[in-house]
Every structure is written in C-alpha cells, then in structure tokens.
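Supplementary Note 2. Why include the ligand at all?

Several targets in our set were suspected to adopt different conformations when bound, so apo predictions alone were not considered sufficient. For every target with a known small-molecule partner we therefore ran a joint prediction. The input for adenosine-5'-diphosphate is given below.
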Amino acid sequence: YPKPLFGPEEWSLANWLAKRYLSTPVQALKMMLPPAASSSDRLFSPPHRRLVAAVSFGDVDPNFSCRAPKQYQALKTALSIAEPMTRQELAARAEVSPSTLDSLVGKGYLKWIAAEGIDEQFAVLGPKTDPPELTSEQAVAMQAIEESLSTPQAETFLLRGVTGSGKTELYIRAIQRVLADGGGAILLVPEISLTPQMIRMVGERLGTDELVVLHSSLTARQRNRGWKRLYDGDARVVLGARSAVFAPCKNVSLIIIDEEHETSYKQDQVPRYHAREVALKRAQQQGATVVMGSATPSVESYYWGEQNHYRRLYLPLRVNQRPLPRIQLIDMREERKQGNRSIFSRRLFAAVRERLDANEQVVLFLNHRGYSAFLICADCGLTLRCPDCNVTYTYHWKNTLRCHYCDRKMRPPDRCPSCDGVELYRRGLGTQKVEAAVYRAFPGARVARMDTDSVRGRLSRESIYASFSRGEIDVLVGTQMIAKGWDVPGVTLVGVIDADTALHFPDFRSAERTFQMVTQVAGRAGRGPIKGEVLAQTRHPEHPALSYAAEDDLPTFYQQELKEREALGYPPFRHLIRIIIRGDPEPLVRVWADDLMHRLRLLGDDIAFLGPAPAPLTRLRGQFRWHLYMKTPVLAKTLEGINEALSTVSVGAQDPQIAIDVDPIQML
Ligand code: ADP
Ligand code: ZN
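The joint prediction is reproduced in token form.
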C-alpha cells in the first residue's frame, strides 16, 4: 500500500466508536475501510485522473536540478513520456515518492487531467449553475456559519428551516467556502432523499471535480472509486448517506447533516452508531463545524439547542414568498357519527375530486403498515397506553394487552375508559385495503403507488417521480418515501389518510414521529404557484402532536414533549440502553433476560430498569426475542459496567444471543 489505511485520527475515532456503542474495535474499524477492502487490487484500481507535464523543457529554471534534484528527475520523466500516467505509475517510473509529484503539481510543473471513468451518476448534470442571491434570513445564517468555519474550534449549528426555506442553498455555499479555504466537507443526507435530483442540485453547483457521491445503489466498483478519490485527496467533498460520515475525506472542516431527525442515521447493525454522534466526535477531533438542518429537528437536538450546546439558526419562511400550506385536521370520529365508514372523509373526498377536475395533482400519504395490533375505541379513537411507559399496549391474541417496554399486562376492558363506548376493535394492519379503496374511489384518475413494495430499485422510483413531475399521474399514493425531498410544483393537495398510525407505535417517540411526519408531508404541498392545501384525517385532533402541527407551533409541542420525557426519564434527560436477548425456546430466553437484569442491577441505583419484556417483534426468524431497557444518567460508566458484567457471561452457540443497542431509535 502506498500509505497506511488508518492514521491516528481513524484509530482514535474507531476506539471511541467501539466504546460508545459497545462493539469490538475491529467492528468499529471496518466502518472506515473502503467498500471492497477485501480485495486490495480493487481498492487501488486506476484512479480517474492522470498527470502530465504542464511546461516544456525550456520553461524549467536551470537551477531547479540542483535545488530539487528529485523533483527535477520526476519532471524530466514526465516530459519524456507520451502517455499521461497515474500518480503511482509516474512515481514508480521516475523512482521518486508520490509526494514529490504533489510538489511539482503545486509549483505548476505538472497538472492533472481527467481520464476515463468520470462517475456515470454525474451524466445527468447540466452546466454549472449560478447561485441565487440569499434572502436576508439566509444571509444571517450564512454569516454565522462562515464565522465558525474561520475559527479552528469545533462548533455545532442546529439549522431549523421550514421546507423550502433554502437550507440546501446554505449547505452548498458553506461547502464552497470550505473548498476555497483548502478544506474538505461531508454532506450527509438520508438514503431516501439521495435522489438524482439531489445529486444534480449539488453537482451542478459544486462541479464534479471535487465531489464524490456514496450510496447503497452504487456498484462496489463505483463506491470504491469514490472512496479512493477521497482517500487520495483527489476529491474533497462527499455527499452520502449515513456511513459517509466515515469517508476518508481530508481535512474535514465541515460536516452537514440534512434532515437531522431522520431515523435512518442510526445503524441497526453492529456497530449501532448514530451518524450525528459520529459527526460531532469527528468534528471535535478536527475542530470542524457541524451544521444539522431540519424543518422538524429531533426533540433531543432541539433540547441541546435550547441548552446552547448547539447554536440555533432559524429560517422561518419559504423563499419566493410562497406561503406554507396550513394543515387542517379532519375528525374521523365525527365522520363515523354521521354514518360515513369509508376511509375518506367527505371533505377529503370532495377536495380530491375538485383538484382532479382542475387538472391539479394530489398526493395521498399512508404511513408504513403497522407491525403490531392494538386496541382502539371506534367512537372516540382512544388507544390504551401503559401508564408507566407511555407507550401503546399491544394486543395479543389471548385477549391480553401487553406493554412492550415493561411487560405490564391487562385484560382489555369491555367499555372504553374514556367515552364508555362499547366497540373496541383491533387495528394496525391492512394498508393494502386502504390503497385499494383509493383506486376504487377515483375511477377515472391516473393513480400510482409508491412504497417499498411497489418500488424495486431506484429506477422505478425515478420513473414514477419523472412521470409525476411531467403531470402523467394525477394521484400518487405513497408511504414515507414521498414524504421528503420531492419538489413537484403541480401538487396542490396533500391528504394524510390516517395521521394516527405512528401515534400508536409502542415507542416513546411516537408523538414526535407523528408531528414530524405530518409537518414533512405538508411541506410537499404548494411548491408551485398555486396555494397548497393539506388535509389530515385523524381520530385525535386534540392530540398535541397533531394540534400543534396544525397550528405550526413546533416550540410549544416540543416543550410539552420534553416535559413528559423528563418526568419519565427518557432521552435527552437520560440515555437509553436497550438489551435484546434472542434464542429458543422462549422460557430459556426469559431466564437469560432475568439473569442478565439481576447482574446489571448491581451497576448502581441511579440506573432505572424496564422489563424484561417480549420485544414488539416477539418472534423473528424462528427465535424468540425479549428485551430490557436501562435508563442511565451516566453513560460511559454504565457502558463500562455492562461490558464487565457481560464479560463474565459465556455464550455458547446454542445459548441465547445478547445484543446491545445504545441510544436505540427503532424499538422493534
Ligand atoms: P430546503 O432545503 O430548505 O427545503 P432548498 O434549499 O431546496 O430548501 O430551496 C428550495 C428552493 O428554493 C430550491 O429550488 C432553491 O433553488 C430555491 N432557493 C433557495 N434559496 C434561494 C434564494 N435565496 N433565492 C431564490 N431561490 C432560492
Ligand atoms: Zn409499561
């Protein structure tokens, strides 16, 4: 290898990662390896740039041969060969070190030229575009970021900006500034929004010389080439999903995390890291600036902004004075009282018809299908929740309700405790049914569906997006996939079929998710000249997650949410550690879970425990899954304790397996 794969920074980051998320150092180091490191010849496949002489013999200072004999030797070699060579090839031919060539490039004696193999994904790019003039709000935020970039201290910004307020524009300018100062930058986006539109937007402004895009639909070879360009210092900016936070970008002075609240920033395999935490750590090591942007930040980040751990920036308005659509809640309990049992309220149905008649476009949003059943009152929409954990009870077929955090159980009541209604029914399944109803309700309309089932690979998603943009689809029905990143001016109506789906997940973040989902979906409407309308159907119009979303009052909702989290000891006030025990048969798993908890209880009185309880996904691939939660105010100490406690447990091949998730995001 021309140089070692890991320097002191990588080692120290890997060490931290292993400790912070309880993985082995090797598992942590793997994150920093190139995508196909198993075969070294691939890693060092020919780079896409080659070196040629930029001068002729006559231009060379005669004294050069004495002052820098090695460089002179290399330059002579470059001048004597016909074919441009890679850095490695030329260094070998001239018998000098590759860094000697860098010096020659610096002095203008050698120059890089592009060879074959510029990334295919950049094929879509048009010519470089000019920047718009910043709005006054953008300018204020930009100035703060630039100030931070010019100081060597690490600093973190939380940029809250409504959808369409021009956050991406700020990201691009900040990156340009970093490039001008000779630094490197990482731009993280959720995998789902890493679309050709995004790549085009960034690529057309920054150009492709310095840009590498990394995401999961690239071939290993493409990813490898990108990795290598960063590693060699050929490119200094990486745009990528979660794992790009580990990219071998040189002199990182800026890390941007777009849609900071997205759950996909947490990896659900070992090491179970959160890209935000890694970014903050990496920034701290390098004195870099972190910019986290979102229209709906995570409640945790919002809190740290309030505590002035992060500097807050705010873009309250859309650019071009486009108004933000108001979200209107439709009470489905009322509909039922009026005898309407269809999935469409009369209001939403009429609104869709109206838009179709006007040749405008409609997005109908469905949440992911539920993974567990719960009990809901048909009249008032009440769902039963565990009083200790504030999560929805899951309905089990033996007619019990069970809390999947603490394992509290109860028999379903005969009557609704809130409205005394007698019809308590099971919910949480059947989005296909909903989709079918959409097709039936609007027979003449051109309807398309977009979710993970209907979309295989990026091509199909892109083709749906393209035909939707061209106006060939009237109604697009979709899940999370259409909630973000889409910019279709023809969309004037967004309907949320059931805003309550996320509300009932057995997850303490269910209210936060609901608020974010509704707000993000609403951001899809009214991007063009016609004012947008957002209708959200719910049985809980009074729930803070929905009522404050409708009032566009994020601070009040977040304050209220924080109060509840504080009372129950949830993040950001405590760290949560989830321990999953899986195996077969179930009684054995249970015994292990109990045993583990007894050991962990010894770690201290300041740690609170929940469980053990069956995990919401109780059976997975033939194994039974139980979990328990620890809430701790002192993370590092607790993690050390867990490590010690587990080191005395010897796990054989037939025994239950133990997995630990520090700061879990998905609780399945
Ligand atoms: P966000 O990332 O906050 O959703 P974008 O940065 O994507 O917003 O901006 C939304 C749209 O407004 C984009 O089409 C962008 O090109 C445009 N835009 C951003 N800033 C400005 C500006 N200062 N003047 C005019 N148009 C702008
Ligand atoms: Zn409970």
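Residues 38-46 have pLDDT under 50 and may be disordered. The pocket of adenosine-5'-diphosphate (ligand 1) is lined by residues 132-135, 138, 161, 163-169, 319 (CB under 6 Å). Comparable summaries for the other entries are listed in the accompanying table.
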